[in-house]
Amino acid sequence: MSDIIQLLPDSVANQIAAGEVVQRPASAVKEMMENAIDAGADQIKLIIKDAGKSLIQVMDNGCGMSVTDARLCFERHATSKIRKAEDLFAIRTMGFRGEAMASIAAIAHVELRTRRHEDELGTVVEIEGSEVVQQYPDQAPAGSSISVKNLFYNIPARRNFLKSNSVELRHIIDEFQRIALAHPELFFSFHSDGNELFHLPKETLKQRIVHLFGNNYNQRLVPVEETTSILNIKGYIGKPEFAKKTRGEQFFFVNNRFIKDPYLNHAVLNAYEEILPADTYPLYVLFIDIDPAKIDINVHPTKTEIKYEDDKAIYAILRSAVKRSLGRFNIAPSLDFEQETGFDNLITPKPLDEIQAPTINFNPNFNPFDDGNPSARSAVSRAYSYPEALERKTSIPQNWDTLYQISEQDEPQQLPLMPEEPAQEASFIQPSDQPKKQFFQLHNRYIVSQIHSGFMLIDQQAAHERILFEQFQQHLNNNQGLSQQSLFPQTVELNAADFALIQDMLPEIQSLGFQLRPFGKTTFIVDGIPADLENVNEGQIIEKLLEDFKNQSDLRLNKREKLAKSLAKNAAIKAGSKLDNEAMADLIDRLFACESPNISLHGKPVIITYTLQELAERFAKTL
């Protein structure tokens, strides 16, 4: 029997490795930008087209490469970062495996232009599918410029699994933001399809956060700094009132490398205990500086997971540092803001027997048309008290000033609301005079309605969400959402990822009744909102709509259904809202006009019915 085990060709091995290293265009962006940082560049420019599917280009002013290095960098396990196994425990660079460029070259058309600062001519290397097409000297600026074209051109299955351009662009923006946050001392720029999304000068960390996420983040940041013998922590955390329902603004950097660590995330959330709204996640950008010998980053191909030598100590230090910053800057409220104490000392209670009624003196015989007769003037000089005048002219008693003592009297006997009428007049009552059906509200959360077989309980928030969801779905299908114009158009500033998401959803958002128009790179102007939204802030409803849309993980819903569901959840009346009888009646009528009135948007019941028989059985049970 012949041998069946054989070595794979380099091209096939590189494609297999590329499946782990390069999962989507954002993965290639990450590897190429990290290489630029390791090359010592202080100016890095990223250019993409079609969300990285057509072109990914990274230009830097780093050290550049020689002719030999330019060719060798595309070989597997070729790296300048380590020389021996011991170097793995002292890694300070972003890359060290030597797999990234070989993996990218195996699945794309790659062109490298590089020149060292001391050389007069640069080198150009062109590779297609791990095969070098040509290599020649040419003029090139100092540094390196790598262009990746037609990503996954020779792996159509992987290319077909890529998402839409807006989704892939958001992933690229996420990777760009992580690298830009880790190195605020470097200049970065980001161009997508000819538009500059980011222009980040060299600055401080706080300025970099504000430039990436918006000017409104300037007031949301709380500094964190802690120095110990084990590790050093610095960075910023967000105030609890600005926490969001979705993750995405949580950044951990260990030795300037972005990592994902649920264990450390739990430490931060534990520090926010009792001051963070339920089901929300605060912003944090935290840098941990630790001895490389005490960690292991060679855990995952993406290098976003780390093993620690003493993870419990790191947990405790991180939790204490965050909690200390929250206390130092008085983030936790120390006063009861629910109690109004501003008028406590303005009104002094006085005993009832010391209260004196005011009196008014005037002359009832005063004549403004007096001709100057002395006898008339003498009459004017005589003053009469107000009670005496009233006693002569009217029948009002003099003890009117005792009316204030009515509070001391016993409560009067309550009279019947409806006077008793003869029985024979009941037949003349018209149907329109009959009382309307009454509804009751329990704890401003549930509506009680009597039915023939018993009564039913309706969750008012779930009912309103169902009503609005079906209504918004109809607007999306008909493209006829009603809009109410804003008296003063509002400006909504978003980060680049949310701005790209809004642009992708703009036709559907306008079908719901929103009137938005772009204003600048990452800003929208809201001229109108759906007519069903009342007493809402335009900017806040847009932000909540985005957060809920990104937070939905139900893959069965398409984009339209997700958008309608998100808007319905934000526009619905909330539990705790007091409703009058007319509002409850209208809510119930609209609910039963829905196609699925019994099921909420979360798959739970909206209506629970109790029959008279069930009540009788409950009362018949013996203790």
Q: Overview of this structure, please?
A:
The protein is α+β, with helices and mostly antiparallel strands and 623 residues long. It has three domains: 10-200, Heat Shock Protein 90 (2-Layer Sandwich); 205-329, Ribosomal Protein S5, domain 2 (2-Layer Sandwich); 440-609, MutL, C-terminal domain, regulatory subdomain (Ribosomal Protein S8, Chain: A, domain 1). Helix content is 32%, strand content 22%. It is built from 17 helices and 24 strands. The chain has an eight-stranded mixed β-sheet with strand order 5-4-3-6-2-1-7-8. A hairpin with a 3-residue loop joins strand 9 (221-227) and strand 10 (231-238). Helix 2 (25-38) runs parallel beside helix 6 and helix 12 (460-478) packs across helix 13 (496-512). Mean pLDDT is 79; it is low at 334-347, 378-396 and 422-434. GO terms for molecular function: ATP binding; ATP hydrolysis activity; ATP-dependent DNA damage sensor activity; endonuclease activity; mismatched DNA binding.
